[in-house]
Amino acid sequence: xxxxxxxxxxxxxxxxxxxxxxxxxxxxxxxxxxxxxxxxxxxxxxxxxxxxxxxxxxxxxxxxxxxxxxxxxxxxxxxxxxxxxxxxxxxxxxxxxxxxxxxxxxxxxxxxxxxxxxxxxxxxxxxxxxxxxxxxxxxxxxxxxxxxxxxxxxxxxxxxxxxxxxxxxxxxxxxxxxxxxxxxxxxxxxxxxxxxxxxxxxxxxxxxxxxxxxxxxxx
Amino acid sequence: xxxxxxxxxxxxxxxxxxxxxxxxxxxxxxxxxxxxxxxxxxxxxxxxxxxxxxxxxxxxxxxxxxxxxxxxxxxxxxxxxxxxxxxxxxxxxxxxxxxxxxxxxxxxxxxxxxxxxxxxxxxxxxxxxxxxxxxxxxxxxxxxxxxxxxxxxxxxxxxxxxxxxxxxxxxxxxxxxxxxxxxxxxxxxxxxxxxxxxxxxxxxxxxxxxxxxxxxxxxxxxxxxxxxxxxxxxxxxxxxxxxxxxx
Lengths: 219, 247
What we know:
The structure holds 2 protein chains of 2 kinds. By secondary structure, chain A is of the alpha/beta class. In chain A, strand 12 (172-174) and strand 13 form a beta hairpin. In chain A, the strands form 3 sheets. In chain A, strands 1, 2, 3, 4, 5, 10, 12, 13, 14, 15 and 16 form an 11-stranded mixed sheet that branches. Chain A is built from 5 helices and 16 strands. By secondary structure, chain B is an alpha/beta fold. Chain B has a single domain, classed as Glutaconate Coenzyme A-transferase (3-Layer(aba) Sandwich), CATH 3.40.1080. Chain B is built from 7 helices and 11 strands. Chain B has helices at 8-12, 33-42, 61-66, 82-90, 100-112, 175-178, 225-246, and strands spanning 20-23, 47-51, 70-75, 94-97, 117-119, 133-136, 139-144, 149-160, 165-166, 182-193, 212-215. Chain B is globular and about 60 Å long. At the A-B interface, helix 3 and helix 4 of A face helix 4, helix 5 and helix 7 of B.
């Protein structure tokens, strides 16, 4: 199999954070791609904000059920053993510390673990949906993001400039170029994607980070 | 037993200009479509709407937003309704964004007789502004106040004539939370059954909570407009691919 790159590499790396039986919430886009790269023997309970525990694969249109939908209103399925709840119970799972991990996309993330992904005032105003509750209630918060904007500007900053979704909550940052762990002392470069050097990451990252003696290969 | 079954006109007689109305749908899916249509025809306006999202331009509360019947929207997300966004930027629609778990819990408080809840959600963000912050056992929480409405406009899979409700799969959406948080609870249902047909364990919302049951007359369990569009697009793509393959 050819080595993974780009967003597929991000999803595959994030998938390695999960243990068999974990209860997780995955955002739309790259985070949800994680389910395609789960290590052998790892099955998850996927939570959806509408109140599903055990979301399954998207159905074919001929199998779509108008009463079975995902957080975005698209046709969904529930796996064997899965179940459905009301809205406040769904968020009791999230805020109550019952979800083991979440993977979120972002606009900005910083070296203190702050995340800003819900608005660009005056430009992008969609609303925060359930993201702030995930930031408040989930212990392992993995940010899966392109390392830079299309303009080349780093998305990993010293300090977020956009309104925050969550304060000091991010535990891990995975990009197509590297994986940082967020520690109380700041970012630590844990792994480099194939083809990238520490100098490459320094050149494209605004945030400060430390480089331990051993830096692994991201895969 | 007292029957809660009403006509659309009887339901609409409870819905007036200027009311605060909760909509129990999910992005306009699983919505009380026929009563919302009736509100548009009747000309109901100046609504304060409480809904998990702004729906879509042709779905749920989104239809009322497009018709400029909504002055204020309390919601968690409007990303699927560009008309709501445009009205907000133009100053025609006031939008209060609420984190989704806080949204659910404020409504629960409104229906459960609670004066509010303490949540960690939003601590350290702009959501804090204007709210009391309390420290409990060393952790910071925001005091979030209850939400209550004049009318809750809900959709259920089944009701019996007494007003007991059953929601299939995800169709409870935000409906079941909102059922407790309004003065008048109006429910549009796919199917009406006799009292006794829904067993005690099948009843999600009990009859005393519900004021009116309206049985929809149009197509049952219809795909929402978004699904119809997406399905047509997928079919067109498959057709183009098949034709391309023949060349």
